[in-house]
Amino acid sequence: MSTIRVQREDFDTAAEVVALKAADNGIGAVVTFTGIVRGNGVTGLTLEHYPGMTEREIARHVNEASARWPLLGVTVVHRIGSLRPGDNIVLVATASSHREPAFEAAEFLMDYLKTRAPFWKLEEAATGTEWVEARGSDNDAVRRWRED
Amino acid sequence: MIILYFSWIRQKLGTGEERFDVPETIKTVTDLAKHLRARGGPFAEVFSDLKRLRSAVNQEHVGWEASVGQGDEVAFFPPVTGG
User: Fold this and answer.
1) What is the ipTM of this complex?
2) What is the pLDDT of residues A50-69, one digit of tens each?
């Protein structure tokens, strides 16, 4: 079972885990990752996305993760719009019988979200606004998942 | 064709979407980018260095040699920064 949502509203990680667990009683491990707006110098963050393509890209990588690991459930929630420091940005939750696939699939999904899902961040600071530049280290992170 | 622009590209061009009649001469994403560059002004600026841009055709990431046609949705955007 997979749940993919792109939304303005905040999410409740505990409620998402409850829903994920309810889907399959063979679940023995749930890993959650939450991305949060950093406050160092930043006063706000606006997230823009490409409606339609975003959901398709996330679904494609959820399917790929499900093919690579024995997952019993995946939840991806990504926020858009205006956010403040401390706000949640993204939730990835993966469920499996055992912890290893859940940990690995969560990392895989985050690495692909960072480098493939069409979101763009505009940072606001006292000095003005600036579009966040893509980081080379995110591209390095995603390379480890490619089959040799 | 529908052309979509995102992030600083959208801001610089002052538009996020346009309808475009594709001339016979445009076969690939590169052809389209060069055509848009030739409009001058902010288009010349945005499409001056294609290394800074990424593109998608019908909501899938593509390379610069991908084919495009009248019925397609083509998007131009900078490298993504979600997560």
Assistant:
1) 0.95
2) 999 999 999 999 999 999 99
Burial of B72 (0-12, 13-18, 19+ CB in 10 A): middle
Which of A64, A68, A69, A65 has its CA nearest to residue A100? A69
**Are the C-beta atoms of residues B4 and B76 closer than 8 Å to each other?**
yes
The whole model's pTM is what? 0.94
User: Which residue in the set B7, B60, B80 is minimally distant from A117, CB to CB?
Assistant: B80
The ranges of chain B with pLDDT < 50 are none
Q: Please count the other Cβ atoms lying within 10 Å of the Cβ belonging to residue A108.
A: 23
- CB atoms near residue A68 (< 10 Å): 14
Residues from chain A contacting residue B75 (CB–CB below 8 Å): 50, 53, 118
Q: CA-to-CA distance for B7 and A47, rounded, in angstroms?
A: 9
Question: Inter-chain contact B82–A48, Cβ cutoff 8 Å?
Answer: no
Residue A20, token pair as written in the block: 């994920």
